[in-house]
Task: structure prediction
Amino acid sequence: MAAVFPANQVIVVGGGLAGMSAANQAVECGGKTVLLDKSAFCGGNTKATSGINGAGTKTQKGKGIPDNAEIFVADTLKGGAKKPELAKVLCQNSAADVDWLVDKFDLDLSLVARLGGHSQPRTHRGKERFPGMTITYALIQMLEKIAEKTDRARIITKAEVFKLICNGKAVVGCEYKKA
Result:
């Protein structure tokens, strides 16, 4: 099935944490979004992560943790990141991303731990057992609420994207099949 969506609409493929973040951000910025997920329900693979990393967050500052994006970039590169330019974007945006989740979705990310190759405590989570799913589920609930009440969001499940429609180098649409 080919999908023709309005030109001012964002198409997001995947209903996990990344897709839900993108869809919610598009709506928050005044756009419309349609989210396509191949599964019968959204959620992706972020079900049992240790939390979400952020450097220089409000939570860290409140706890007196001396972390920042530069330290996070150094830790990430030391850990073997293969694309320094992507690592920099990830790390430099991390505080705003974590703070957005706390502020916009009322998530408890008040516990901060030092995990993996981090030199500072920067893995944020709440008291729940599966923080990845807790974060993702909050974003799913927000997008579902917007989709129910407005025409600014639409979620299509059992939709497997198999082709991107391009105009030159720009992706302008997609084709998907319903499972």
